[in-house]
């Protein structure tokens, strides 16, 4: 009889232990084919979803009851999404943002007297950026950096010398292809004006720019009228002077009307109203000095607009207007504009703009007499 070595005994015992496992697996596969509603998912399903079988020590899951139903997707074990956690900045779409603030060109910094905040403007929004354009950069806690564009510049995306005769002649040729904006970096240097934040009572307020935004934060256009008025410290009411514009183009928001009215402070909260200050309107011929003057004067001459009298205790009085008009340019103050339509009137009334004739009782129009010598 052959003497068995220790290695042979161990191999024999190991083979004997593998046979029941193989038989059990084959039996389980046969049951799965016959029943049609059980699968061996122990390799991909967590143990918390599975129940062990006592007879063959195999872990299996009931597909219809434990995991999911192929005919009813509502039984998927998905958790509801509430919101991003704290410290996660909101991501704005590329069509909404002008671009992002970047540190790839130069470090981003802010000091009590200066700031260096550079933004990369995407090629699709470059035609909308102008010097003086107002933008805001959001912080992760809801505050906003209110800024304006102080400098614009192009930089090469790829190192190339385009200051050559061959390149210039090729570009000026009619056969030359148009410039590809993706070949250049379009950068906007932002000048911080203030930081917009909500007080404890929910009122929007402003403070000095004392923090910098995170890199790669979106640069967004100003679309809220109150953000513009608060950021520029423009009163929400007062004497209407005109509409805010940048480079001659009106700033438009999502409000109705979409323009931003510019008011002159006309109350006593910070001292005397600004009507008691000197004002100079200057410009070349035909730029609208008289037109602007007439509209400003019209805003003061209303029944509701009164001022305190310092010399007596008689309360308030309406202002009196005296106009020296040798060329009869201000006579339209006493006439109604018949060309105004309902849309114009709605816009004026929404922004508290006075229009039409002014009361004659408060106005004295003087035509000086010229004597010849």
UniProtKB/TrEMBL annotation:
It holds the Pfam family DUF87. Residues 15-42 are annotated as: Disordered. InterPro entries: HerA_central, P-loop_NTPase, T4SS_component. Residues 273-341 form the Helicase HerA central domain. This is Helicase HerA central domain-containing protein. It comes from Methanosarcina mazei (Methanosarcina frisia).
């Amino acid at each position: 009889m052959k003497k068995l070595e220790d290695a042979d005994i161990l191999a024999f015992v190991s083979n004997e232990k593998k046979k029941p496992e193989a038989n059990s697996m084959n039996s389980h596969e046969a049951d799965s084919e016959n029943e049609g509603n059980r699968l061996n998912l122990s390799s991909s399903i967590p143990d918390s979803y599975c129940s062990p079988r006592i007879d063959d020590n195999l872990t299996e899951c009931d597909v219809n009851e434990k995991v999911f139903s192929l005919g009813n997707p509502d039984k998927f074990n998905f958790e509801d999404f509430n919101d991003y956690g704290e410290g996660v900045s909101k991501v704005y779409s590329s069509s909404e943002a002008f671009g992002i603030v970047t540190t790839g060109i130069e470090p981003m910094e802010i000091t009590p007297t200066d700031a260096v905040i550079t933004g990369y403007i995407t090629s699709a929004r470059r035609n909308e950026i102008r010097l003086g354009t107002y933008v805001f950069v959001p912080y992760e806690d809801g505050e906003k950096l209110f800024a304006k564009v102080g400098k614009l510049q192009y930089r090469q995306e790829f190192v190339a010398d385009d200051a050559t005769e061959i390149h210039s002649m090729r570009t000026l040729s009619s056969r030359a292809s148009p410039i590809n904006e993706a070949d250049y970096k379009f950068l906007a240097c932002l000048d911080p004006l203030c930081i917009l934040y909500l007080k404890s009572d929910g009122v929007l307020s402003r403070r000095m720019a004392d923090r910098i935004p995170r890199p790669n934060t979106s640069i967004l256009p100003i679309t809220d009228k109150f953000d513009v008025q608060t950021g520029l410290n423009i009163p929400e009411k007062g004497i209407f002077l005109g509409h805010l514009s940048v480079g001659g183009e009106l700033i438009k928001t999502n409000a109705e009307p979409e323009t931003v009215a510019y008011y002159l402070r006309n109350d006593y909260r910070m001292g005397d109203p600004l009507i008691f200050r000197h004002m100079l309107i200057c410009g070349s011929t035909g730029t609208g000095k008289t037109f602007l003057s007439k509209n400003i004067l019209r805003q003061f001459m209303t029944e509701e607009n009164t001022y305190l009298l310092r010399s007596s205790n008689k309360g308030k009085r309406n202002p009196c207007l005296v106009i020296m008009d040798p060329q009869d340019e201000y006579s339209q103050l006493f006439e109604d504009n018949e060309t105004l339509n309902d849309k114009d009137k709605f816009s004026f009334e929404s922004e508290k703009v006075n229009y039409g004739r002014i009361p004659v009782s408060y106005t004295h129009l003087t035509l000086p007499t010229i004597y010849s010598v």
